[in-house]
Protein backbone atom coordinates (compact mmCIF):
# COMPACT_ATOMS: atom_id res chain seq x y z
CA UNK A 1 0.00 0.00 0.00
CA UNK A 2 2.82 2.35 0.92
CA UNK A 3 4.68 1.46 -2.29
CA UNK A 4 1.56 2.11 -4.37
CA UNK A 5 1.03 5.50 -2.73
CA UNK A 6 4.66 6.39 -3.34
CA UNK A 7 4.41 5.44 -7.00
CA UNK A 8 1.25 7.50 -7.41
CA UNK A 9 2.95 10.48 -5.75
CA UNK A 10 5.95 10.18 -8.05
CA UNK A 11 3.72 9.90 -11.11
CA UNK A 12 1.80 13.01 -10.04
CA UNK A 13 5.02 14.93 -9.41
CA UNK A 14 6.38 13.93 -12.81
CA UNK A 15 3.17 15.02 -14.51
CA UNK A 16 3.22 18.35 -12.70
CA UNK A 17 6.85 18.89 -13.66
CA UNK A 18 6.07 18.17 -17.32
CA UNK A 19 3.14 20.59 -17.20
CA UNK A 20 5.35 23.31 -15.70
CA UNK A 21 8.02 22.65 -18.31
CA UNK A 22 5.48 22.95 -21.10
CA UNK A 23 4.06 26.16 -19.62
CA UNK A 24 7.54 27.64 -19.30
CA UNK A 25 8.60 26.62 -22.80
CA UNK A 26 9.65 29.62 -24.83
CA UNK A 27 8.34 30.23 -28.36
CA UNK A 28 10.48 28.93 -31.22
CA UNK A 29 12.01 32.09 -32.79
CA UNK A 30 12.83 30.38 -36.09
CA UNK A 31 9.30 29.04 -36.48
CA UNK A 32 7.81 32.40 -35.51
CA UNK A 33 9.94 34.21 -38.09
CA UNK A 34 8.91 31.73 -40.77
CA UNK A 35 5.25 32.19 -39.90
CA UNK A 36 5.66 35.97 -39.91
CA UNK A 37 7.29 35.81 -43.34
CA UNK A 38 4.68 33.57 -44.93
CA UNK A 39 1.54 34.77 -43.15
CA UNK A 40 2.03 38.33 -41.93
CA UNK A 41 4.65 40.05 -44.09
CA UNK A 42 2.39 40.92 -47.03
CA UNK A 43 0.37 43.33 -44.89
CA UNK A 44 2.51 44.11 -41.85
CA UNK A 45 6.01 43.80 -43.28
CA UNK A 46 8.48 41.04 -42.47
CA UNK A 47 9.81 43.12 -39.57
CA UNK A 48 6.42 44.42 -38.45
CA UNK A 49 6.80 47.82 -40.10
CA UNK A 50 3.95 47.92 -42.60
CA UNK A 51 4.10 50.29 -45.55
CA UNK A 52 0.35 50.96 -45.73
CA UNK A 53 -1.44 53.04 -43.11
CA UNK A 54 -4.45 50.74 -43.14
CA UNK A 55 -2.27 48.01 -41.64
CA UNK A 56 -0.82 48.75 -38.19
CA UNK A 57 2.86 48.63 -37.37
CA UNK A 58 3.49 45.66 -35.08
CA UNK A 59 7.21 46.14 -34.48
CA UNK A 60 8.04 46.98 -30.88
CA UNK A 61 4.50 46.40 -29.67
CA UNK A 62 4.18 44.63 -26.33
CA UNK A 63 4.04 40.86 -26.75
CA UNK A 64 1.19 40.59 -24.24
CA UNK A 65 -0.95 42.98 -26.26
CA UNK A 66 -0.16 41.30 -29.59
CA UNK A 67 -0.99 37.89 -28.16
CA UNK A 68 -4.31 39.16 -26.80
CA UNK A 69 -5.28 40.64 -30.16
CA UNK A 70 -4.43 37.43 -32.02
CA UNK A 71 -6.54 35.48 -29.52
CA UNK A 72 -9.37 37.97 -29.85
CA UNK A 73 -9.41 37.67 -33.64
CA UNK A 74 -9.95 33.91 -33.42
CA UNK A 75 -13.40 32.39 -33.00
CA UNK A 76 -13.36 29.49 -30.54
CA UNK A 77 -15.69 26.98 -28.91
CA UNK A 78 -18.52 27.90 -31.24
CA UNK A 79 -18.41 31.52 -30.11
CA UNK A 80 -17.70 34.52 -32.37
CA UNK A 81 -14.37 36.29 -32.13
CA UNK A 82 -14.06 39.05 -29.54
CA UNK A 83 -12.58 41.29 -32.22
CA UNK A 84 -14.41 40.97 -35.52
CA UNK A 85 -12.22 41.23 -38.61
CA UNK A 86 -12.77 38.90 -41.55
CA UNK A 87 -9.19 39.12 -42.82
CA UNK A 88 -7.50 38.61 -39.47
CA UNK A 89 -10.02 35.96 -38.51
CA UNK A 90 -8.93 33.95 -41.52
CA UNK A 91 -5.26 34.51 -40.80
CA UNK A 92 -5.39 33.23 -37.23
CA UNK A 93 -7.79 30.34 -37.87
CA UNK A 94 -5.01 27.76 -38.17
CA UNK A 95 -2.76 29.20 -35.45
CA UNK A 96 -2.56 27.50 -32.08
CA UNK A 97 -1.69 29.16 -28.79
CA UNK A 98 2.05 28.55 -29.16
CA UNK A 99 2.00 30.00 -32.68
CA UNK A 100 0.36 33.17 -31.40
CA UNK A 101 2.80 33.54 -28.53
CA UNK A 102 5.69 33.01 -30.92
CA UNK A 103 4.44 35.66 -33.35
CA UNK A 104 3.79 38.09 -30.52
CA UNK A 105 7.32 37.63 -29.17
CA UNK A 106 8.83 37.92 -32.66
CA UNK A 107 7.17 41.22 -33.55
CA UNK A 108 7.73 42.65 -30.06
CA UNK A 109 11.46 42.13 -30.58
CA UNK A 110 11.56 44.05 -33.87
CA UNK A 111 12.57 47.72 -34.02
CA UNK A 112 9.78 50.16 -34.74
CA UNK A 113 10.23 52.61 -37.59
CA UNK A 114 7.97 55.35 -36.25
CA UNK A 115 5.74 57.67 -38.20
CA UNK A 116 5.62 61.42 -37.61
CA UNK A 117 2.98 64.08 -37.07
CA UNK A 118 2.04 65.75 -40.34
CA UNK A 119 -0.44 68.51 -39.50
CA UNK A 120 1.18 71.44 -37.68
CA UNK A 121 -2.20 73.16 -37.33
CA UNK A 122 -3.58 70.49 -35.00
CA UNK A 123 -0.51 69.71 -32.90
CA UNK A 124 -1.61 71.95 -30.03
CA UNK A 125 -5.05 70.33 -29.86
CA UNK A 126 -3.62 66.83 -30.06
CA UNK A 127 -0.97 67.55 -27.46
CA UNK A 128 -3.51 68.98 -24.99
CA UNK A 129 -5.80 65.98 -25.35
CA UNK A 130 -2.94 63.52 -24.99
CA UNK A 131 -1.22 65.14 -22.03
CA UNK A 132 -4.11 66.74 -20.16
CA UNK A 133 -7.36 65.36 -21.54
CA UNK A 134 -10.46 67.54 -21.22
CA UNK A 135 -11.88 67.73 -17.71
CA UNK A 136 -15.01 69.53 -18.90
CA UNK A 137 -15.93 66.45 -20.95
CA UNK A 138 -14.64 63.92 -18.44
CA UNK A 139 -11.94 62.94 -20.91
CA UNK A 140 -8.79 61.57 -19.22
CA UNK A 141 -5.28 62.24 -20.48
CA UNK A 142 -4.04 59.49 -22.80
CA UNK A 143 -0.61 59.77 -21.19
CA UNK A 144 -2.05 58.47 -17.94
CA UNK A 145 -2.24 54.95 -19.40
CA UNK A 146 -0.07 55.02 -22.51
CA UNK A 147 2.78 57.05 -21.04
CA UNK A 148 4.25 60.43 -22.02
CA UNK A 149 5.92 58.99 -25.14
CA UNK A 150 3.16 56.55 -26.05
CA UNK A 151 5.20 53.51 -24.99
CA UNK A 152 2.34 51.99 -23.01
CA UNK A 153 2.72 49.51 -20.16
CA UNK A 154 3.39 45.82 -20.90
CA UNK A 155 0.45 43.53 -20.05
CA UNK A 156 -1.79 46.56 -19.51
CA UNK A 157 -1.74 49.22 -22.22
CA UNK A 158 -0.38 49.03 -25.78
CA UNK A 159 2.36 51.09 -27.34
CA UNK A 160 0.72 53.71 -29.56
CA UNK A 161 3.53 56.22 -30.20
CA UNK A 162 4.78 56.23 -33.78
CA UNK A 163 1.74 54.37 -35.12
CA UNK A 164 0.09 55.43 -38.37
CA UNK A 165 -2.31 58.30 -37.65
CA UNK A 166 -4.89 56.85 -40.04
CA UNK A 167 -4.87 53.54 -38.19
CA UNK A 168 -5.18 55.13 -34.74
CA UNK A 169 -8.01 57.31 -36.02
CA UNK A 170 -9.82 54.29 -37.46
CA UNK A 171 -9.53 52.38 -34.18
CA UNK A 172 -10.81 55.27 -32.08
CA UNK A 173 -13.80 55.63 -34.39
CA UNK A 174 -14.39 51.87 -34.26
CA UNK A 175 -14.39 52.00 -30.45
CA UNK A 176 -16.77 54.96 -30.54
CA UNK A 177 -19.18 53.16 -32.87
CA UNK A 178 -18.98 49.93 -30.88
CA UNK A 179 -17.53 48.13 -33.89
CA UNK A 180 -14.51 47.22 -31.80
CA UNK A 181 -15.35 45.97 -28.34
CA UNK A 182 -12.39 44.00 -26.99
CA UNK A 183 -11.24 46.73 -24.61
CA UNK A 184 -11.31 45.72 -20.92
CA UNK A 185 -14.18 47.32 -18.98
CA UNK A 186 -15.21 49.26 -22.13
CA UNK A 187 -12.46 51.73 -21.28
CA UNK A 188 -11.69 52.86 -24.82
CA UNK A 189 -15.32 52.85 -25.90
CA UNK A 190 -16.24 55.20 -23.06
CA UNK A 191 -13.35 57.52 -23.89
CA UNK A 192 -13.94 57.56 -27.65
CA UNK A 193 -17.62 58.40 -27.18
CA UNK A 194 -16.57 61.73 -25.68
CA UNK A 195 -14.46 62.74 -28.69
CA UNK A 196 -15.42 64.55 -31.88
CA UNK A 197 -14.05 63.67 -35.32
CA UNK A 198 -11.67 66.68 -35.34
CA UNK A 199 -10.39 65.77 -31.87
CA UNK A 200 -9.77 62.17 -32.90
CA UNK A 201 -7.91 63.28 -36.01
CA UNK A 202 -5.76 65.80 -34.13
CA UNK A 203 -4.96 63.30 -31.38
CA UNK A 204 -4.10 60.53 -33.83
CA UNK A 205 -1.73 62.78 -35.75
CA UNK A 206 -0.02 63.89 -32.54
CA UNK A 207 0.41 60.28 -31.38
CA UNK A 208 2.11 59.39 -34.67
CA UNK A 209 4.90 61.81 -33.77
CA UNK A 210 5.53 60.51 -30.25
CA UNK A 211 8.87 58.84 -29.53
TrEMBL record:
> What top-level branch of life does the organism fall under?
Bacteria
Post-translational note: Binds 2 heme c groups covalently per subunit.
Q: Which SUPFAM superfamilies match?
A: Cytochrome c
InterPro entries cross-referenced by the UniProt entry: Cyt_c-like_dom, Cyt_c-like_dom_sf, Cytochrome_c4-like, Cytochrome_c_Oxidase_Subunit
Q: Provide the leader sequence positions.
A: 1-19
Q: Where is the Cytochrome c domain?
A: 27-111, 121-211
Q: Which Pfam families match?
A: Cytochrom_C
Query: Which residues does heme c 2 bind?
Result: 142, 145-146, 188
| Record keywords, A-Z | Electron transport, Heme, Iron, Metal-binding, Periplasm, Signal, Transport
Q: Which residues form a coiled coil?
A: none
Principal localization reads periplasm
Binding residues for heme c 1, per the UniProt record? Answer: 40, 43-44, 88
Q: Which locations, inside or outside the cell, does it occupy?
A: Periplasm
> What PANTHER family is this protein classified in?
CBB3-TYPE CYTOCHROME C OXIDASE SUBUNIT FIXP, CYTOCHROME C4
Its source organism is: Candidatus Methylophosphatis roskildensis
Gene3D superfamilies reported in the protein's UniProt record: Cytochrome c-like domain (1.10.760.10)
Give the protein name, as stated in the record. Answer: Cytochrome c4
Q: Name one GO molecular function term.
A: iron ion binding
What GO terms fall under cellular component here?
Answer: periplasmic space
